């Protein structure tokens, strides 16, 4: 096939991009999105500071614009994200009791998931809850972890399952790409525990913001899949340019397609012009929407 989405679909996978509502007036941006991708993740528009900036007052305008465009194109939609320590409004960060944070968290999950009920393929229910250092399994300090305790993750997944039983529920994080890293082991142990105790979880999202993908990346995808969850590459971008970048992208795509339960790949943007990694050129299209060598290697590897 001649596009990323159609090539991925040949093996039952999707190939998506993060899209920002602020760029929808750029016709080349939208044309590239529509032509190449069959899935979307709103880059910022479904985050807590966008969807519930003040308590109980939900706003979905920018997210809805992305969702309705995607639906018109028959794309899958990944929801990103419900419970995260960043892009979190001050009113949540300032809540001081466990019951207050718990009520706010569950109300937020219900409010956002109900609005999109039946329309979201997979939700990143909890994002980036694990710490980068410390012993295996250490969670990052956040208002959720501090007030509710480590059980906030389980509670969020149970609330999410009840809110939209049709959506796949993912745990999403960065630096869990190396099969043997302590942070990876912590997430692996959590998923294994959730599966053993019947806590609802369907997928692990590997953000995969790379310099170089680890050499055991495929082994890592396979070890998560063996726990009985899907694996999705959720925020892929690779720094650099030229053949080195193209080669790294190829290895990422090959690692996914080698594992049946690696069900799709999302790149974190369409064009280098709008990448969140300013000063780098980590995406598949250059600033003029020309296909880069990395594009060709991805297309050939799908
Ligand atoms: C980034 C967006 O790309 C930026 O536009 C925003 O300013 C900050 O967040 N991990 C995530 C994403 O889960 O939500 C982040 O997106 C990148 C890192």
UniProtKB/TrEMBL annotation:
GO molecular function: endo-1,4-beta-xylanase activity
The protein's name in its UniProt record: Beta-xylanase
Family stated for the protein in its record: Belongs to the glycosyl hydrolase 10 (cellulase F) family.
Active site: 235 (nucleophile)
Keywords: Carbohydrate metabolism, Glycosidase, Hydrolase, Polysaccharide degradation, Signal, Xylan degradation
GO biological process, one term: xylan catabolic process
Enzyme's top EC category: hydrolase
GH10 domain location: 1-301
Domain of life: Bacteria
Its EC number(s): 3.2.1.8
Catalytic activity: Endohydrolysis of (1->4)-beta-D-xylosidic linkages in xylans
Organism (species): Sphaerisporangium album
């Amino acid at each position: 096939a001649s596009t990323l989405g159609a090539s991925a679909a040949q093996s039952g996978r999707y190939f998506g991009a993060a899209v920002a509502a602020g760029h929808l007036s750029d016709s080349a941006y939208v044309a590239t999105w529509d032509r190449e991708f069959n899935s979307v993740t709103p880059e910022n528009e479904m985050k807590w500071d966008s969807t519930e900036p003040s308590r109980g007052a939900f706003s979905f305008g920018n997210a809805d614009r992305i969702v309705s465009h995607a639906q018109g194109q028959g794309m899958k939609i990944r929801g990103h994200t419900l419970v995260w320590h960043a892009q979190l409004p001050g009113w949540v960060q300032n809540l001081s009791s466990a019951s207050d944070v718990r009520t706010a968290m569950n109300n937020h999950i219900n409010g956002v998931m109900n609005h999109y009920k039946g329309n979201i393929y997979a939700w990143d229910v909890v994002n980036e809850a694990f710490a980068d250092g410390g012993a295996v399994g250490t969670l990052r300090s956040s208002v959720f972890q501090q007030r509710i305790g480590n059980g906030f993750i389980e509670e969020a997944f149970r609330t999410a399952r009840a809110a939209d039983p049709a959506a796949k529920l993912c745990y999403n994080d960065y630096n869990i790409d190396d099969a043997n890293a302590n942070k990876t082991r912590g997430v692996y142990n959590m998923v294994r525990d959730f599966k053993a105790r019947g806590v609802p979880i369907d997928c692990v999202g590997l953000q995969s913001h790379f310099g170089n993908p680890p050499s055991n990346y495929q082994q890592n995808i396979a070890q998560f899949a063996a726990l009985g969850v899907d694996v999705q590459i959720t925020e892929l971008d690779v720094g650099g340019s030229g053949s080195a970048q193209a080669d790294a992208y190829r290895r990422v795509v090959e690692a996914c397609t080698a594992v049946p339960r690696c069900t799709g790949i999302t790149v974190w943007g369409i064009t280098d012009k709008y990448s969140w990694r300013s000063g780098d050129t980590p995406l598949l299209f250059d600033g003029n929407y020309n296909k880069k060598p990395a594009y060709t290697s991805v297309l050939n590897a799908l």
